[in-house]
Amino acid sequence: MPDAVPTPKTNRLHAIGRTLVLSLLATSLAATAYAEDSDVPSLAGKRIAISMTGTSHYFDIKAFQAQVDEVKRLGGTPITLDAGRNDKNLVNQLQT
């Protein structure tokens, strides 16, 4: 099946496409990062539940803390929950 064998040109096009998509994504993220504070909704007076499946890994802890910090920055009160690596607990915590 000669059609199934990737050619160097095809691989190069995929690499260019990936690079273009990543560049557009980075640009859009940078643009939203500089949004004016007046455009950002306020969470003042609201309690926001944040549940993680677990915080045993470094990345999990950093992502969890970033969510807590963002809720505080927007004026809300974070309610933090740890599901202990149990997806069922995670769903139950967020439904209550």
UniProtKB/TrEMBL annotation:
Signal peptide: 1-35
Entry keywords, A to Z: Signal
Protein name listed in UniProt: Periplasmic binding protein/LacI transcriptional regulator
Taxonomic path: Bacteria, Pseudomonadati, Pseudomonadota, Gammaproteobacteria, Pseudomonadales
